[in-house]
Amino acid sequence: MQNNVRLNTYHLLIAVPPEDLDVSIPAKTLSGEWYKGHVFWDTEIFVLPFFIFTQPELARNLLLYRYRRLKQARAKARENGYEGAWWPWESAESGDDETPKTWVNFDGTVIPVHVSKREIHIAGDIIYGVVLYYQATSDRDFMLRYGAEMVFETARFWAARVNYNSEKNYYEIKDVIGPNEFQECVDNNFYTNYMARWNLRYAAELYDYLAKEHPLRLNRLAKKIELKKEEILSWREISEKVIAFINQDGLIEEFEGYFNKKEFLIQEWDENAMPVWPASLDLAEAKDTQLVKQADVILLMRLFANEFSSQVKKVNYDFYKKRTTHKSSLSLPSYAITALELGNLRESYKYFIQAVRADYGDLYGNTELGIHAAALGGAWQIAGYGFAGLKIKDEILSVNPVLPGEVSGIRLNFWFRNALFELKVANVEEKLQIEVLFVRDRFRNREGIWLEVCGEKCFLSRGQKVRRCQQRTIGEVPVTAGSQK
């Protein structure tokens, strides 16, 4: 596994452009011309986190690629009758929409492509990357000069894209495609609605922060984009009323009417532990069933892990894992990380093996067309978010490692707010021996930085380390032994 991890890391490192080059990372990296070198949401959701925590300067440049094409994003929204900014589903150097009209599906059939008009969640996906970068780096200059404008313009798009249902007194988003592309042209996809609601709420909160802390910069930006205070009031009101379908048990309906689809469950797995497509079902018929192409609800819960309880995660994980076919390289990482959070360590490791070997083992049968960038970044996320347990909570980075029995240990270097840390975890006799070292600080005069290690907050100065020992399990585990020096 170590060789596979290093191979993935190698391909990520050679795919990222230098800081002075105005490009991004395409879905097939530089290893193949499939997708014609176009940039998708894969970059912000799956690839960007690796660079945020390992090389934040390069992560900044990947986001600047989007900012420098904000003009084209505004044009796309305007051409479709909306305000604000809506980045294209497939982007290249020009920033214009490069999405093809037809596509060859994995069963060889040629199908029409609707994603350019309907897979609108990319607007929120890019802002998710902007906010994650800001939270992890505290790069105020980036947010003031670039990020805030992107946040506000996408909030404008969402405010224009929603429809108000006066009978039920909520806002809905109709005729979309979520991450699960089997079912097209659906209403109120949970992932899309949640992203829209979060984007609108964050935009309003950011406006309040800038008004208090940077009023002159806010005034300058508001004048530039003709932003009115009435818009912020509208964003708040809409964000509170965007519909999301969750039943009393916490089970989330992927989109309106999903539960009425014909039930099809995964019954068989191949030698790679991947779901076998039901022999009695043609691919064209998948739209009429509950089969899911890739993580959708589970991905959303992974992205906003702090906002869902363990019970809600478990209910949805148990339901959707029986229906998800993992026909995309974007799918396995979310299931692996969620399985870890729920204590399904062996199941998580099974997903990890497949994710990290996606190209080395030609898991999807098309590696000859190019490396899967999302799988590369997703495998790191399993290690970083999953095994290392990295999570930003209330402005503090939480480190809460969880290792399956098959993993003897992990060592990971990561940056958080201009501080470099080294994490070492050893899996010894059902216990995890954990050590976090504050290696380097770009702020010479800073006394230290707060972290949360295994549920306990600690203040570390440069050169200081904290040690913990806990049972090999999950969740908020009581510290059984610890030292700091």
Which SSEs are present, and which pair or pack?
Layout: H1 2-15, H2 42-54, H3 56-67, H4 70-79, E1 102-104, E2 110-112, H5 115-118, H6 122-137, H7 140-161, E3 163-165, E4 170-172, H8 190-213, H9 215-225, H10 229-239, H11 297-303, H12 310-320, H13 332-341, H14 345-356, H15 373-387, E5 390-393, E6 396-399, E7 409-416, E8 419-428, E9 431-441, E10 449-453, E11 456-460, E12 465-471, E13 481-484
Parallel strand pairs: 6-10
Antiparallel strand pairs: 1-2, 3-4, 5-6, 7-8, 8-9, 9-12, 10-11, 12-13
Helix pairs in contact: 1-15, 2-3, 2-6, 2-15, 3-6, 6-7, 6-8, 7-8, 8-9, 8-10, 11-13, 12-13, 13-14, 13-15
Structure, described:
This protein is of the alpha+beta class. It folds into two domains: 2-387, Glycosyltransferase; 396-484, Sandwich (Maltose phosphorylase, domain 3), CATH 2.60.420.10. Helices cover 40% and strands 14% of the residues. The strands form four sheets. The protein has a five-stranded antiparallel beta sheet. A four-stranded mixed beta sheet has the order 5-6-10-11. The model is unreliable at 474-485 (pLDDT under 50). Strand 3 and strand 4 (170-172) form a beta hairpin. The protein has 15 helices and 13 strands.
Shape: globular
Total beta-strand segments: 13
Q: If you compute it from the alpha carbons, what radius of gyration comes out, rounded to the nearest whole angstrom?
A: 22 Å
CATH A-level architecture of the largest domain: Alpha/alpha barrel
Unreliable spans: 474-485
Helical region count? 15
CATH topology of the largest domain: Glycosyltransferase
User: How many separate structural domains?
Assistant: 2
* Class inferred from helices and paired strands: alpha+beta
Query: What does the average pLDDT come to?
Result: 94
The largest sheet, given as strand count, sense and whether it forms a barrel, is: 5 strands, antiparallel
